[in-house]
Amino acid sequence: MDVVLRREKRERRLAKRRKVVSDDEEELAHEVRRMDMDVGGARQHRVRARPKKRANRRMLTVEVSDSSVEKMVASIVNTSEVAASEVMRPVEIGVPSEVLVEVPVDIPAEPLKEGTELVVAQIGGTVVEAEGITLPTSPMEEVRPEEGKNTSGKDVKTLEITFPDFLQDSVVPLLKYLDEKESGRCVELEKTCGGLRISNENAQKVTVHLMARLEKSREAYEAAIKRSERLITTTDKQEKKHVEEVATLEIRRAEEVRIADELRGKIAEAKTTEEDLCSKILEIEAKCEMEFRYAEELSTNLFANQQIRSMKSS
């Protein structure tokens, strides 16, 4: 049954996917021809559709989907716009509607434009774009680009840097920031030290309280030991009494075992008598069944004789 169900499911799936190529080929061919006319009658987009009779004769089964057709048409338009004058090579594309389309294969890539390099230098919080920059070695120096690297033909502006300006712009704010940070750290340390003092005082109080509790627990432990010793003595006395009680119980169990053995013998005798009675009852029942069957046979014979007599009289 499972194999049959699987085969039925496969056949249903194949039946859903199978479609005979009919009208989709003609519509796609008309669209491709119209695009060829718009491009200018270029030969690289020749579309050769199979005749309908041949497709119907072979019963070619394909999967037709609108999304795949749209993607193919879009790719044809893009390639026609990019390479309208390039040599085309026919390539067979696996389109769901079985249409042969020629698309360009070797498309030369356009040369990329070489961009100018941007050098970003951060000096005193200002950003400067130039093609070549050298770091100053003295408190005051002109920064100029190297010769032979200016390809744009424009004049590069010179930048004058002084050491006091550098200090005012970068070093002084840095020192202020460090002072503020250090003062904040000192305040935080004072707060943490105060918290540690308070926590130490609390810890001392807790230790005193724990010592008092330890003394109380020691006294309670000693009292518990004395109580356990008393319990041990009482348990010894109870064990002795229990041994005496166990001895008396063993004597009683021996008497009960003897009585039980006697009862088992009587029960066995009763079972044998019961089995004898059951066998006798079965024999009586068998005799009764034989007599009952004999009576039934006699009644059937009498009934048959009466019917024969009635047939003869009639």
From TrEMBL:
Domain of life of the source: Eukaryota
The protein, known as: Uncharacterized protein
